[in-house]
């Protein structure tokens, strides 16, 4: 049995975290009876203001559905500066983490919501003579540059570019969640080092019936958003849309937390946008029931070049799995909603409004066709039962 260690600061068990990717992946890898799987993560719950897992913020080891989870003490953050401090400390703890003899890694598999954890994981792999796989979820530092958080070619940008280059050169494999490799190829990374594994859904888990945690008025047309409320989520455009359709019996539900939530709530009050309801985050396992009971699901992205590299928004796969039509705002590659005929796409506010009104007036039987198209697309291409086979093949290749 090979010891596989996944490194991700935010990969707490699903009862705490909105990130299921590692646990869904591990569930099907464990069925192959080839691996002992460990996850190294932090105790602070990402996407909350001051919440820690298991009440205490100190190190803890637990087992979750056969996965050994090692939780390091985390640092709460509500600003960019504190988040960078949290990232740095986690990266240092990872770099000098000590294993028992039985748990020594054969593969260190690091996911990069940020590069500090990935750099720590690379050092850890070198120290223990393990193979190193880098999973790139976001193109840092390019993401922060295009969102205006750091200056292009500034000191911080150049520092991150150096870390990025070191990681890309020394990784045995790079797994990208987007479908296009142009960014990596332009940096001189050989194509045979690159692999594509998107986000997906564990349909077996997703289809379980649970309680409905969010009250939905059945006399209204309920459009639901679930997830983070930050700059990248472009939720102000959803408020713009809500203002334009206030005369209709449409109710928008925004479920989640993030740095922009308070300003969004303030805007709703100041502008008297009376068809938007905000809800606190709910347990990840309870989200599917809310999605299934909504009439349509909504998301928006910023208009930035980054999304031309291919995207893999986790919520998009969950929306498809719920068999509901999707109302999408933005320009992405590939144009998933259009290609799958699973909803309406708006590339400007007028298109967005038109798509919303179309869904609202559409017979339920036609909306069902759109929802079923999305569900079928996920079943055929993005179930974790199938995606885990790709991960298994990569592990086999690296371990040869």
TrEMBL record:
The keyword Metal-binding does not apply. Pfam families: Glyco_transf_4, Glycos_transf_1. Keywords: Transferase. Residues 216-376 form the Glycosyl transferase family domain. CDD domains: GT4_WbuB-like (cd03794). GO terms for molecular function: glycosyltransferase activity. It comes from the Bacteria. Residues 25-205 form the Glycosyltransferase subfamily 4-like N-terminal domain. This is Glycosyl transferase.
């Amino acid at each position: 049995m090979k010891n596989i260690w996944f490194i991700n600061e935010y990969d707490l068990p699903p009862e705490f975290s909105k990130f299921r990717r590692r646990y869904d992946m591990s569930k099907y890898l464990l069925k192959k009876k080839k691996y002992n799987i460990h996850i190294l993560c932090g105790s602070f719950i990402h996407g909350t203001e001051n919440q820690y897992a298991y009440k205490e913020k100190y190190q803890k080891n637990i087992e979750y559905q056969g996965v050994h989870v090692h939780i390091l003490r985390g640092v709460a953050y509500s600003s960019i500066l504190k988040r960078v401090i949290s990232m740095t400390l986690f990266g240092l703890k990872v770099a000098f983490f000590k294993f028992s003899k039985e748990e020594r890694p054969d593969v260190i598999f690091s996911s990069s919501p940020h590069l500090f954890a990935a750099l720590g994981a690379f050092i850890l792999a070198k120290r223990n003579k393990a193979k190193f796989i880098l999973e790139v979820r976001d193109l840092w530092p390019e993401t922060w540059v295009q969102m205006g958080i750091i200056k292009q070619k500034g000191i911080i940008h150049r520092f991150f570019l150096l870390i990025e280059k070191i990681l890309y050169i020394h990784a045995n494999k790079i797994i990208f969640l987007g479908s296009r490799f142009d960014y990596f190829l332009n940096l001189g990374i050989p194509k045979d080092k690159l692999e594509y594994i998107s986000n997906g859904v564990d349909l077996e888990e997703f289809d379980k019936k649970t309680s409905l945690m969010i009250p939905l008025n059945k006399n209204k047309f309920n459009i639901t958003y679930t997830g983070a409320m930050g700059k990248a989520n472009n939720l102000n455009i959803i408020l713009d849309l809500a203002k334009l359709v206030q005369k209709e019996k449409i109710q928008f539900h925004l479920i989640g937390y993030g740095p922009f939530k308070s300003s969004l709530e303030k805007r709703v009050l100041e502008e008297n946008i009376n068809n938007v309801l905000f809800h606190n985050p709910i347990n990840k396992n309870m989200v599917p029931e809310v999605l299934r009971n909504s009439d349509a699901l909504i998301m928006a992205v910023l208009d930035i070049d980054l999304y031309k590299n291919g995207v893999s928004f986790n919520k998009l796969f969950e929306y498809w799995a719920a068999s509901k039509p999707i109302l999408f705002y933005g320009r992405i590659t590939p144009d998933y909603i259009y290609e799958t005929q699973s909803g309406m796409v708006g590339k400007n506010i007028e298109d967005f409004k038109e798509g919303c009104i179309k869904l609202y007036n559409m017979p339920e039987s036609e909306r069902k066709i759109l929802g079923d198209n999305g569900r079928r697309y996920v079943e055929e291409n993005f179930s974790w039962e199938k995606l885990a086979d790709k991960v298994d093949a990569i592990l086999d290749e690296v371990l040869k």
